[in-house]
Design brief:
By secondary structure, the chain is of the alpha/beta class. It contains twelve helices and eight strands. α10 packs antiparallel against α11. It is elongated. It binds NADPH dihydro-nicotinamide-adenine-dinucleotide phosphate. The site of NADPH dihydro-nicotinamide-adenine-dinucleotide phosphate has 21 residues, from α1 and α4.
């Protein structure tokens, strides 16, 4: 807890990160373009550095959390900002290509670089509920794991710097798919006077049950073999048609089921109707509309 840390970027998230380090007892140096945003963390014991360069020199570890990667490059691109010998942990949201590119750029300038993604809102930072993903050198992660642990549940994903961003968006895809499916069902049942609270526990059991299938289905995907052990894709496609018809008949939105059925239809047209649902990975694994 006596490891000095630096936090650059004091927006909503950066202030929460600095606050969690302070709470864990780390001497914390901060910097923000708009100085006034440092007031709260300075009142909490942080030191405000006069320049980015000064902030970098203060900590053995520098956390960056600004709007986007362009802001990161603007901040550290200035010729008077020395990165040699620093360790940067970039928790700014971005895509995998930006993460890999920024890693190369920082490493060429002599920095150690870990990328990261925050899967939490600012109030959760500093609790186990805040999931923070890291990718880059495992040795660098291990060296700072306990310090980073002040921020939440930290997870190391692998040496490829792009992994944190990819897991981040994969998690969002999962989250929205579950929520959207639930909203579709809630709208359908709403037409029969069933309220959302009545349907929610039923939906929860289905979502949890389906989640149990993932490891087995993953084995089919990884082996590239999709025998229809419980159901063939064309059986699912008929149920999809039924969902679309029912949605239209009771006057609720059918766009989402139509989208899913269009993918299944393409897969069936390609000869996969007799195989099991995860064969759709072939549709998901190529560019849209191909
Ligand atoms: P805010 O808009 O509150 O803060 C943005 C920060 O970026 C400010 O410190 C701002 O400085 C700084 N900044 C932007 N452009 C520049 C620049 N060109 N040069 C220097 N500083 C710059 O955003 P958040 O704190 O909410 O988000 C920060 C990052 O965290 C984002 O990538 C976001 O996606 C991610 N994140 C946020 C979550 C949330 O719930 N808030 C959840 C998960 C991830 P200034 O104060 O001077 O404008």
């Amino acid at each position: 807890t006596d490891t000095p840390v630096t936090v650059i970027g004091l927006g909503l998230m950066g202030q929460a990160l600095a606050g969690a380090f302070l709470k864990a007892g780390h001497p914390t140096t901060v910097w923000n373009r708009t100085t006034s945003k440092a007031d709260a963390v300075v009142a909490g014991g942080a030191r405000l550095a006069p320049t980015v360069g000064d902030a970098l020199e203060a900590g053995s570890l520098t956390i960056i959390c600004v709007t986007d990667y362009q802001a990161v490059r603007e901040l550290f691109g200035a010729s008077d900002v020395g990165l040699d010998g620093t360790t940067l942990v970039n928790l700014t949201s971005g895509d995998s290509a930006q993460a890999r590119e920024t890693a190369r750029w920082a490493e060429q300038r002599g920095a150690r670089y870990l990328d990261g993604a925050i899967m939490a809102v600012p109030p959760a930072i500093g609790t186990a509920e805040a999931v923070i993903l890291h990718s880059g050198s495992e040795a660098d992660f291990e060296a700072h794991k306990s310090t980073l642990g002040a921020l939440g549940t930290v997870t190391y994903l692998g040496a490829d710097h792009g992994l944190a961003s990819l897991y981040d968006v994969a998690g969002l895809a999962m989250m929205w798919s579950v929520l959207n499916a639930w909203l579709q069902g809630t709208a359908l049942l709403g037409t029969a006077g069933v309220d959302a609270a009545t349907y929610a526990p039923f939906a929860q059991r289905i979502a949890a049950g389906v989640a149990e299938w993932l490891p087995g289905y993953a084995r089919q995907i990884d082996s590239g073999s999709f025998p229809a052990e419980v159901s063939a894709l064309e059986t699912d496609a008929r149920a999809m048609a039924h969902l679309i018809e029912e949605s239209e008949a009771v006057g609720v939105n059918a766009e989402l089921p139509k989208l899913i059925k269009a993918m299944a239809d393409r897969s069936i047209a390609a000869g996969h109707g007799g195989e099991q649902y995860p064969v759709l990975i072939e549709e998901f694994g190529k560019p849209s509309g191909d």
